[in-house]
Amino acid sequence: MYGQLKNKSYLPRLLDKRIAEDLEVFGAVCIQGPKYCGKTWTGRSFANSEISLLDPSGGFQNRELAELAPSVALQGASPRLIDEWQEVPSLWDAVRNEIDQTGKLSTFVLTGSAVPRESKPRHSGVGRIEKLKMRPVTLQESGDSTAEVSLRGLFEGVCAPVQGSRDNTWGTCSSGGARWMAGVASVC
User: Fold this and answer.
1) CA dist., res. 171 & res. 175, Å (int)
2) Which of 8, 71, 100, 179 is most buried (most C-beta within 10 Å)?
3) What is the third-level CATH fold of 16-142?
4) pLDDT for 124-152, tens place per residue?
5) Where are the extended beta strands (E) located within the chain?
6) Interhelix angle for 90-102 vs 57-68, to 10°?
7) CA 123/CA 33 separation, integer angstroms
8) For residue 169, what pLDDT band results from cuts at 50, 70 and 90?
């Protein structure tokens, strides 16, 4: 069971299903994305323990521990969240090694908004750590859209009429984006 650290106000993300699947297949996922897009909260929703490398407690003692003894920083209930892993790039290789040693019994969620500053990991992580890109919260995830209409669908000619619009005829696109755009102009 995972997710003992899940925040009560966590909004499920479109990426959640993929994270769950990839944890089973690879043993670790690395959630990358811009600052403040929800990487840490999403990671916590799958984690049973965590270490934050940017926690200022004790003069950034977690980061110091990870630098001195990466294997000790990995200890904790699985899946273990390693927040801002890029602060100590050697953790990448330590996670890969732990997955190899335990046969995926130890699982990890790594989060980070940047690539390692100085040294880079020695191993790509292929077959052990799946890299996933997280974007800011979508309108669908926030509940502000039903996602019945997608931009891809609009430009591929697959449209649904907008409820409550004065003119639903534009909703059946046959020639893609150009007709859709004309329809938007007539509705606005």
Assistant:
1) 12
2) 179
3) Rossmann fold (3.40.50)
4) 666 688 999 999 998 888 888 887 777 77
5) 28-32, 49-52, 80-83, 108-112, 129-133
6) 60
7) 21
8) very low
3-state helix, strand, coil in the chain (%, to 5): 40, 10, 50
Token digits of residue 91: 């953790």
* CA–CA separation, 142 and 36 (whole Å): 15
**One-letter amino acid identity for 126?**
V
Instruction: Over range 116-126, report the average pLDDT.
Output: 62
pLDDT 10s digits, 2-60: 788 899 999 999 999 999 999 989 999 999 999 999 999 999 999 999 999 999 988 89
Tokens of 180: 């859709």
**Residues 63, 54 contacting (CB under 8 angstroms):** yes
85, two tokens: 């892993």
Q: Which two tokens stand for residue 156?
A: 């591929």
